[in-house]
Amino acid sequence: MTGIEANSGFLALALPFLAAALAPVLTRFLKQHSCWVLALAPAFAFLIFLGALPEVAGGNVFLFGLDWIPSFDVRFSFRLDGLSSTFALLITGIGTLIILYSGGYLAGHRDQGRFLSFMLMFMGAMLGLVMSDDLMTLIVYWELTSITSFLLIGFDHERGAARRGAIQALVITGGGGLALMAGLIAIRELTGLTSLSEVLAAGDALREGSFYVPILILVLAGAFTKSAQMPFHVWLPNAMEAPTPVSAYLHSATMVKAGVYLLLRLHPALGDTALWTTILPLFGAVTLVVGALLAVRATDIKITLAYTTVASLGLLVMLIGVGTETAIIGAVLYLIAHSLFKGGLFMVAGSVDHGAHTREIDHLGGLGRAMPITFAAALLCALSMGGITPFVGFLAKEEIYHALEYGDPYHVALICAAIAGNALMFAAAFIVALKPFIGRMPETIHHPHEGAPTIWLGPLVLGVCGLVGGLFYGAYHALFSSPMASAAFGEPVAIEIGWMPHLNLAFVLSLATIALGVVIYLLSERLRAALTALLAAIGWGPDHGFDQAMRGLIRGAFAITNFLQSGRLDYYMTATVAVMTAALFGAMAYTGGWPAMPEFPQVTYYEWIVLALLLCGLFAVVVAKNRLTAIVSLGIQGFAVALIFMLMGAPDLSFTQFMVETLSVVILALAITRLKLSPTDHRPTREKLPDAALAAAAGAGFGLFLLAVVQRPFDSVLSDFFERYSYAIAHGRNIVNVILVDFRGIDTMGEIAVVMTTGLGVLALIRVRVKRRNPRPADPMEVTP
Predict the structure, then answer these.
(1) What does the pLDDT read at residue 751?
(2) Given this model, what pLDDT does residue 674 score?
(3) What sign does the dihedral 127-129-130-135 (CA atoms) show?
(4) Exposed site from 56, 333, 368, 769, fewest CB < 10 Å?
(5) Class assignment of domain 569-714?
């Protein structure tokens, strides 16, 4: 994009964040009606992307951005093509409906403004993620989705389950995000490719490189954790502790699709290898079947839908792993269809909970008469999820079976997994869409009612979109699915499948899926009981394993902290000096930088006096009988160094050293007078010798290091710089003072602040100790005001 187009792109990216900043204020004044104003932000962004759709559908790719960190070749850049355009339309379009839905669902909630702010920030993060072109920009938005989803899942932070779900989501997806960051940095450093555009244009550069395997593993770790592949799927059902608008948005168009988006985006660069076509279908197929089984086993509507999302993500990953043109088409068609029907079904779940005050399927029934609009929306979405023509779900399911209709064992196994998973999800869809609305209403439900228009509008619109997309499949493919599949496959792709069935193997498999789904629906209670018994027999699972891992992490951190932070100052000092000594000798040994032993210099009599003063001070410290004497004797060393500075013609340094040494001794002595001063060291000689040896080694290491430094040729660049500019810039002739006050003035101010803070801390400790030990006797004549 250039000119006004680039400005429009930045505006679309910024609108959700601007609305997030305004949400608390608007909600305070407009209450639940603020959702109508806030929904204008994603709606306007949707119109911006919709305006660019014809050119994107024509094959154009728009790039826009600005320099961020030029020295590291990092740009704040974005890419709008068929893949990112469809995702952007889903994010902003469904996001508009979700904001309206949130206003009705959380009407009167005390923290509605905070919730809407978090939701809009999450929307902006996801929008930036799917449009990012620079690899570092992608990492920033990727992590931002993890942070904002943490805030949304833990929104009801007073409940322990919500806090646990938020932490679990953050740990799993955040850990995967770190792996992805390592993978993208490896791509930058090993190939010099800094953007997705360059990666896609590089062809086989990544596949043929020796670093392909570690990069693939790191990227898959990020994608699998974000898109809830087994065994990382556990965070997704537990994220249902979030309010229903979060679940509807998170499962339809946003966070859980981030990993799938990444795999689709990088398929032209990383796909079509033996590892790709093995790992992705294996994880995807297992996730599909297990997720679908757990969906039928659940009794909470939201949990049922959550596990069908896990299964759907597994199906998408499996298809991307197969990697053929037809498989990518099937993945694209199913992704769009899933976004529509899953967002609608989650909003239906919230509407049922809002109207009947329960989400337990066993406690629901007969709501269709009291909630006809919600029932209609549920049926529309369930028909699409079940793959019934003429809905877009039918187009997706047909293309999935076309992609897998090969006779080799590999594809036969995958098609069996697809049939089993789709049949189970068919049953789960109608369990959610039929059982709460038909039959007899339980006596426990009192006064069920249809929600406000903002509650039923979203699922109804999404259900109708699933029907319209299937009926007008020509325009649907031209504008959405074909450009998206072309970008994901890396070559132009034309999709022609329509809603009219054709008698072929795919249609036969589709009919078999529906028949099996009906059987599972009718036997769902028996199957649920069997699965519950099986899981009880297995016992341990990834969710329990996460708790064990977190407990182990905390215990390990506690043990390491206790070992490293024992509370003994002598341990800390010993460890610090030992590491420092090892670093000095190790560096010189590794580089061969041992200094040459200098000849003994000519020493004047006054230098002998200073040397004798140093030795006397050292002897006084060692033989001191109490700590106060040792501290005062320690100051002799500093005074001797100050004398050396004075004799060498640096009176300013000498004066500074005298002041610092005096202040240090006074403060230390003042503080230590509140401690027991005698004896200095009651240990036997055998325990003192190791410390003495370590001290001698440290002194020798510093001495050798300084000898090595002074034997190197003198580099006068800094000296010449300060000599040249001290007066010209800072107008000072004392170079040392100019360096301290001007060139490193901020550092000097920081040092002053540290000394002042330390002094205040010492003073406070002394006053507290004096007050505790020597309380002032009460004066009977004193009158307390």
Answers:
(1) 82
(2) 65
(3) positive
(4) 769
(5) mainly alpha
